[in-house]
Amino acid sequence: MRDVYTPIPLLRGAYGAFMMPRSIKWEIQYSLMLEAIRKRTAGLVVKIFLGILILSFAVWGIGDTVSSFSKVTEVATVGNMEIPPEQLSNEMQRQMNRFSRSFGDQLDMEQARALGLVDITLGAIINNALFTLGADSLGVSISDAVVTDEIRKNPEFNGPLGSFDRIIFQQVLRNNSFSENDFIEKVRQNMKRGQFLGIVTSSGLAPLAMAEVLYRHRQEKRIAEIVLFTDSAMSGISAPREAELEKFHKDNAAQFTAPEYRDLTFITLTTGELAKEIAVPDDEIKQLYESRLNEFNTPERRQLQQIVAPDEETAKKAHKKLIDGDAFAKVAKEIVGLEAETLDIGLVTRDQILSELAGAAFDLPKNGFSKPIESPLGWHLLRVAKIEEGRQKTLDEARDKLSAELAKEKAVDSLFEMANQLEDELGGGATLEEAAKQMNLKVVKAEGVNSSGKNAEGKPVEVLPAANSFLKVAFDTPQNTDSQLTEAGSDAYFILRVDKVVPPTLKPLKTIMDEVKKAWKAVKRAEASKKAAEEALKLVQGGKNFTAFVAKKGLKIKQIAPFTRAMKNSPKNLPPMLAAELFTLKVGEYAVSRGPKGHYLARLKEIKEADPGADKEGVDKIRQELTDSIRNDLMTQLAGALRQRYPVTVNKRAVDQLF
């Protein structure tokens, strides 16, 4: 059996040879592709989920078997290893909690499914199982002592004194829905997989020559001169004939077609609305308050400073200086050599500091200092810089919060009961209106709603529910038909009827004549600016002096500051297609490209080559990117190879039933 620090032999023979990229050109293309992806994943939400996705690689993987079982015993199998529903459910809850803590809004299951979080989470679990099996096949094991040491070294579990704090450790585990045994086992498995994957993650950096080539490619800069032939400056466009407008209207029908509109009738059931109707008895509020007294107790906190001396004699010497009236920071500097900024422990409660210090710390008055106190860390002198008194919220102060919580709990129970009752009413032949009257529910009507939730004037229809799935259901349901009772997150249901469907309709030309004329003129002006730019291109390519030609036309040449392929430092109005084309030209060559306001004629004036030797930090960054790309590629190949050895089966029905 191998311990965590025992080297593992190369995996080449066990899982097949890894195909390393063989050409620098391929690496450039690959790196540029990754760069493009990163640009499109700059949002915080995407970054969070990309972090999860890196763990899952291809989610369920190519070639995984998707099957359906009537009995939910596992959501997937990896080789002989079964992944139980509880494991996926618990991990999903952790991921949703992390998301909610990051953004402050509760992420419900409907949103999680829409974000693909179920597939991503299951994919990560599957790949972890594959790597665990791979580690087991090589006899990798992690001892209890090594796991304990790894946990104690984690700075997330450190207390105010900078060392492992069991209270904080347990709090972090509770916040992330882990039992202590589950977390210890998770750390053990993570370390085992880390050791197994060490051959990939600990491999050397990508070749320096490769990084330098990519650096030159990325950091090469171009300087160009551009002239804009604006659409608005194009003159001589005659008024359109009626036949031209009719043809333009017909040829561009999509531009002038009104979307489909629907008239809807619907009922919503929400815990928020139900909770408003629920009166919570005082005795239940009082009982809940008494069961959660600690939650409403704000403990006393104290801002502490400390001097830690190596021995009792030094501590007594420092204590005498304090008695003589010397400042705490001065004594710390002169006697122990501690800087003033290192003395502050922070605002702490009694249970957040060492038990040996707690009594003295919380008995001292403000600005008071203690006698020398011994602890396992040395001899301490404490000073109280600030006191925040503790207090207990009264029942009246906590009443509104507790009442709202109890009402919501009761509303959740009522929600399911009412949903079942509503289905029974409708199943018995009642209309939405009849069922609503029987159950004292509100029926809402919305007329002329398009698939974006807007009316014919382009304004949002305010009465529609906030559920993401509402509009999809509304536009999937046939006319004069009730939809299914649909869950909207974890605290709402809705059901709707489509009363009327107005299909997409081409607006009559007579009703939008001005709109069509404006669009026609815009097209003609764009065609004219293109023609002007292309005629200018022919002239300058034929030998006409660029500067003199532009001056004669009364136009202005604008010089573009040096920019890279990533458009760094380039003007915001420089069209990306033009910028890309400029990197295909030689100095002195021209190009024409469309922009937001017209057509550009551009001349490449200068190429500024990049010097890798002058930017070691930049080259090192690219080298690390290439290294990460290669490692990720290797890990993906390893996961694929492991799937051949340990077949993966996904129980799709079980996953769907679970979520």
Q: Which structural category fits the helices and strands?
A: alpha+beta
Strand order of the largest sheet: 1-20-2-3
What is the CATH architecture descriptor of the largest domain? Orthogonal Bundle
Shape: extended
Structural domains: how many: 4
Q: Tell me the name of the CATH homologous superfamily of the largest domain.
A: Porin chaperone SurA, peptide-binding domain
* Span between termini: 40 Å
Strand content: 15-25%
Average pLDDT = 84
Number of helices: 25
- In total, the number of strands is 20
Radius of gyration: 35 Å
CATH class of the largest domain reads: Mainly Alpha
Looking at CATH, which topology of the largest domain would you report?
Triger factor/SurA peptide-binding fold
Low-confidence stretches: 1-70
Helical proportion, percent range: 40-55%
Query: Biggest sheet: strands, sense, closure?
Result: 4 strands, mixed
Give the structure's gist in a few sentences:
It is built from 25 helices and 20 strands. It is an alpha+beta fold and 659 residues long. The chain has four domains: 235 residues, Triger factor/SurA peptide-binding fold; 136 residues, Chitinase A, domain 3 (Roll), CATH 3.10.50; 123 residues; 90 residues, Chitinase A, domain 3.
